[in-house]
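From the methods appendix. Each design record in this collection lists the tokenized structure first, followed by the designed amino acid sequence. Records were kept in a plain field format so they could be parsed without special tools. The example shown here is representative of the layout used throughout.

RECORD:
FOLD TOKENS (83 positions):
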């Protein structure tokens, strides 16, 4: 595999997220479907201005509510870094 170096400009207050596919792959909701990456990205965009502790609470509540009484089907890792 060929790897490339990429640079991005960050400014104070920017937030970076690193995550596995686990959050988006969880089944739940009224039709027992996957949460989906588009919904996960939208959720991150909607909470990005909150402090990181508050974001953690929202993410935990959202996925718990989504899964409901079902079982977690994949590991979940979300890391948020604020510049």
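DESIGN:
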């Amino acid at each position: 595999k060929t790897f490339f170096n990429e640079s991005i400009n960050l400014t104070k207050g920017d937030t970076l997220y690193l995550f596995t596919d686990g959050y988006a792959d969880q089944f739940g909701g009224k039709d027992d479907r996957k949460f989906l990456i588009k919904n996960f990205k939208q959720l991150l965009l909607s909470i990005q201005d909150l402090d990181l502790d508050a974001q953690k609470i929202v993410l935990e509540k959202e996925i718990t509510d989504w899964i409901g009484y079902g079982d977690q089907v994949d590991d979940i890792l979300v890391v948020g870094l604020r510049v």
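APPENDIX NOTE: The chain is about 35% helix and 15% strand.
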